[in-house]
Amino acid sequence: MNIAPGPLLSMINSPADLKQLSREQLHQVCDELRQYIIDVVSVHGGHFAASLGVVELSVALHYIYNTPYDQLVWDVGHQAYGHKILTGRRDAFPTNRKYNGISGFPNRKESEYDTFGVGHSSTSISAALGMAMASKIKGENRKAVAVIGDGALTAGLAFEGMNHAGVADSDVLIILNDNCMSIDPNVGALKEYLTDISTSQTYNKFKDDIWKALGKLPVGKNFTREMASKIEHSIKGFINKNSNLFEALKLRYFGPIDGHNISKLVDTLHDLKNIPGPKLLHIVTVKGKGYSLAEKDQTRWHAPGLFDKITGEIYKKSFEVPQPPKYQDVFGHTIIELAEQNKSIIGVTPAMPSGSSLKFMMEKMPDRAFDVGICEQHAVTLSAGMATQGMRVFCNIYSSFMQRAYDQVIHDVAIQNLPVVFCLDRGGLVGEDGATHHGAYDIAYFRCIPNMVVSSPMNEQELRNLMYTAQLEKNDFPFSIRYPRGEGVMPEWRTPLEEITIGKGRKIKDGKEIAILSFGHPGNFATTAIRELRTDGIDPAHYDLRFVKPIDEDLLHEVFSKYNKIVTVEDGTVVGGFGSAILEFMAAHNYKADVKMLGIPDRIVEHGTPKELYRECGYDAAGIVAAVREMVGEKVQVNVKL
Ligand SMILES: Cc1ncc(C[n+]2csc(CCOP(=O)(O)OP(=O)(O)O)c2C)c(N)n1
Ligand SMILES: CC(=O)[C@@H](O)[C@H](O)COP(=O)(O)O
Ligand SMILES: [Mg+2]
């Protein structure tokens, strides 16, 4: 379907075109930009509400700043659709997040306007400060701007950046886009503080007046850092700097202002551009602005999938037979079942209550399930602290976001051998979010940690049983369970809970000549592949290892005694992952076999549907068929249905 942008937007091929427009015309540009985002996302999918909330900001920034010379860094980047459309990617926007299409996040490979690759939150302040400091060292007069949301501001990294920015004497502007939302409603004392300063009228009017006056002062040789500093000193006579968190960190604080008032934004940015040093502009916006359903239910419309833009109906696939649930929902329901029996169970999520489905427990047991903000490191150490007091915490973190908390996993959990249960959701290739979000590395990075159990279920029943096993009192050590994004394979998933012996895999079938060893959900790809291969008279054995640590040595002795051709399959990097564990076992026991490792290759995998990416990486059913045929000496046309 050809989606036409409005007449003004059609003429904007770069920010230079935007700059030709009058200030009055910017209103129309905002309307057309917002409509184009609605039109395209409703048909092609993607993140939605966040970009609608920064339409005016995106236009104002590119109108005032000299991008890409001036450096603009978007935090997370899920809100940067307006920025992409204004910077030469309007016509490519319908390919957003598609295989070989543009990325859903700013990406340095894609455009010179994307100054910093993002996807994980809270990096923008450090990155923009780094750019500002480098410009200063090089003697350039470049501006650096970080746009960070109130959710992303909850992370320690954002505070590390501000702590440095306040004393770095570099020209960096932090724009705090405060919409009181993360994906779910934002949490924590900081959120309450932001609401307080947004509503304290006396303080804000006073500050606003002073900074407005300051902003109007001439710049250049008549307005030096010394003058700014003198004015600041006189202001400090009136204001207790510690009454404002940001000023206490030596960032000049401006705002809050209405982030949907394009004229006000343009004026303010114009003034701020000429004020040297580190500063923070607080803007207040509405997530989902301009699409009323999204304004009302911002979590649902964070990334709604395809929808009818007129009626607001979000399309769902309809099936006549029951479908398998999402793994996240199996987690969300099972933890409640377990917590009803075991009073020591606690649930923790860093800002993903909906994405992890911990929200079910938060609703039912609000005293025992917590969203701690975008704070993966804190989530892990908090869980460790609770574990010292006898709690059995299920700390649920997406595999790729767990990368943030690696030191905490080793230092706070593993070294002390504390019984924290890590549920790593989104383990493996996640699809359209692409490189920043793939859970590619956790098998490798958890496998090397002493004391850690590393497991992965092949289906919903196994996920439930692994969760059951992990919370048993006798299993008082770190335990990780990784599972993929999306649906599993068992429509009837509410199976009785049973213990699994730690470190025991299972033989799914015997075979001839060749064995397939799988870890986690790709075992189902192997099942499909075996069905296809058997029609050609090739009959591989299949083993689902379930644990990569401790690994089932008895089972592996059986495998290596019976088979000398082995294919390993995992939804994780082949560097140091499950296949590597098999090779280590083989070497340690002096077995000789041909081993082919299928999994995520040692390169960055971009975005596309999971099926497209599994195929590209060669470990879907077709890839397994091809690998087996090659090993048994057949090179036949592969014909497996995706
Ligand atoms: C390290 C990390 N943890 C979690 C996420 C998932 N995540 C993406 S956007 C988002 C909410 C961000 O809220 P905010 O910064 O306020 O932006 P808004 O969507 O409100 O514009 C979260 C939790 C992430 N991208 N990175
Ligand atoms: C931008 C971001 O990091 C999240 O919105 C992420 O896209 C969520 O992914 P899921 O859809 O897998 O929950
Ligand atoms: Mg927000």
TrEMBL record:
Broadest EC class assigned to this enzyme: transferase
Binding site for Mg(2+): 150, 179
GO CC entries: cytosol
Source taxon at top rank: Bacteria
Pathway named in the protein's UniProt entry: Metabolic intermediate biosynthesis; 1-deoxy-D-xylulose 5-phosphate biosynthesis; 1-deoxy-D-xylulose 5-phosphate from D-glyceraldehyde 3-phosphate and pyruvate: step 1/1
GO biological process: isopentenyl diphosphate biosynthetic process, methylerythritol 4-phosphate pathway; terpenoid biosynthetic process; thiamine biosynthetic process
Domain Transketolase-like pyrimidine-binding: 325-491
Keywords: Isoprene biosynthesis, Magnesium, Metal-binding, Thiamine biosynthesis, Thiamine pyrophosphate, Transferase
Family matches, as CDD domains: TPP_DXS, TPP_PYR_DXS_TK_like
Keyword flag Transferase: yes
Chain sites annotated for binding thiamine diphosphate: 78, 119-121, 151-152, 179, 291, 376
Cofactor note: Binds 1 thiamine pyrophosphate per subunit.
GO molecular function: 1-deoxy-D-xylulose-5-phosphate synthase activity; magnesium ion binding; thiamine pyrophosphate binding
PROSITE patterns linked to this entry: TRANSKETOLASE_1, TRANSKETOLASE_2
Catalyzed chemical reaction(s): D-glyceraldehyde 3-phosphate + pyruvate + H(+) = 1-deoxy-D-xylulose 5-phosphate + CO2
Cofactors required: thiamine diphosphate; Mg(2+)
InterPro entries cross-referenced by the UniProt entry: Dxylulose-5-P_synthase, THDP-binding, Transketo_C/PFOR_II, Transketolase-like_Pyr-bd, Transketolase_BS, Transketolase_C, Transketolase_CS
EC number: 2.2.1.7
Family: Belongs to the transketolase family. DXPS subfamily.
Function: Catalyzes the acyloin condensation reaction between C atoms 2 and 3 of pyruvate and glyceraldehyde 3-phosphate to yield 1-deoxy-D-xylulose-5-phosphate (DXP).
Quaternary data: Homodimer.
Protein name from the UniProt record: 1-deoxy-D-xylulose-5-phosphate synthase
Annotated organism of origin: Pseudobacter ginsenosidimutans
